[in-house]
Amino acid sequence: MSIALPSTLAAYFELTNAGKLDALVRCFAPDGLVQDEGQRIHGALAIQTWAERAKQKYEYQVSPLSISEGEGQYKVLGRVAGGFPGSPIDLMHVFRLAGHEIASLEIREPVGLEGRRALVTGGTKGIGQAVVARLLKDGASVLATARSRPPSTSGATFVEADVSTAQGCATVAEAVLQRVGGVDIIVHVVGGSSAPAGGFSALDDDEWIRALDLNLFPAVRLDRLLLPAMIEQRSGVVVHVTSIQSQLPLPASTTAYAAAKAALSTYSKSLSKEVSPKGIRVVRVSPGWVETEAAVALVQRLAQANGTDVDSARQTLMNSLGGIPIGRPAKPREVADLIGFLVSPAAASITGTEYVIDGGTVPTA
After folding, report:
1. What is the three-class DSSP state of 222?
2. Which of 150, 175, 250, 315 has its CA at a distance of 20 to 30 angstroms from the CA of residue 229?
3. What single-letter DSSP state applies at residue 185?
């Protein structure tokens, strides 16, 4: 998928890849400046010499992946492939323009998630809100989606859509392309259960369909819509937020939810085997009880219903899960920090696996 570049920058990359370096120099102002590999190259003649030496040494091609504009500069993340160890690598190209000429160009490694575009579903509350904050902090451009607009999006682009429907997923996919120009990171957080208590007999077809529509199909549909562009650019990360409920379901109330999350986990594993050879990493994050706003409200309701204090109600709920060895639920920020690591270049060799973050709730050998 190509990205829209200002004409001068488009010409720079086109001429670079074609090896037309005498014409390339005309993209720069006469006193233009290039900073690359610790060097400062100043003036047209010096820039042409630099370009010729770099092209001869590395025999490289650059594919622009994303662009952002701000503070008088354009940042273009480019994939550089050529005759050098570790090829291809992603490098940030920071341009400043003077009219239609390049006044300066700095080529450097990206910082954190700089230049990356992320989609977070269920991104306005709980884990999703914490993930959005973490990705923004790490430098990504983030599009968050939920069924209703929050009071503040804190720097993220927001699209209002119900991703439990096919039309809602289509709306989000269109917004990804139109508003942020594509996607490099997808974090599927949306999920939940509204099923009544009462075990299997309380779950009619509508309840089962609701569980699948909220916990499985948003990921399936959005991946189907967005992965082709990721495959074309041969890079990207997909995170499916599952649940320890897939291993430890609560028969009285979460059978359908747990089954849907188990289906999501199996789907995620299969997807990773298909697309990892094409440059896309797919990982799962499986939280236990996380102390979101909704979880806090649940504890307060339990305390009121049982005529006890909040701490006692909290402990009773932990006991119903089989206990949490660390003595507390996870914080949304802790789950977001794990996801932040998994989508970062530091986790470049991690795909196809599941990370449980539950304070030790799931017993393991």
Report:
1. helix
2. 150
3. E
Closest C-alpha among 274, 182, 255 to residue 215: 255
209: DSSP letter:
H
- Average of pLDDT values for 245-271? 90
Q: What is d(CA 82, CA 102) in angstroms, rounded to the nearest whole number?
A: 24
Confidence of residue 129 (pLDDT cuts 50, 70, 90): very high
Q: What's the Cα-to-Cα distance from 191 to each of 83, 158, 164, 235, rounded to whole Å?
A: 45, 18, 9, 26
Token readout for 295 is 């979880």
At 242, list the tokens: 């599952």
Cβ atoms of 4 and 181 closer than 8 Å: yes
Q: Which helix (H) or strand (E) segment is 275 a member of? A: helix 255-275
Listing from the earlier edge strand, what are the strands of the sheet with 28-36? 39-42, 28-36, 101-108, 89-98, 73-81, 61-70
User: What are the pLDDT digits (tens) for 69-108?
Assistant: 888 899 999 999 998 888 889 999 999 999 999 999 999 9
Strand duo 73-81 + 61-70: pairing: antiparallel
What distance in Å separates the CA atoms of residue 185 and residue 123, rounded to the nearest whole number? 14
DSSP 8-state assignment for residue 248 = S
Q: Give yes or no for a contact between 250 and 300, defined as CB atoms under 8 angstroms apart.
A: no
pTM, full prediction: 0.89
- The mean pLDDT value of the chain amounts to 92
Q: What is the DSSP letter of 162?
A: -
Query: Cα–Cα distances in Å, from 289 out to 133, 196, 299, 341?
Result: 20, 19, 12, 20
CA dist., res. 95 & res. 69, Å (int):
10
Res 2: pLDDT: 66
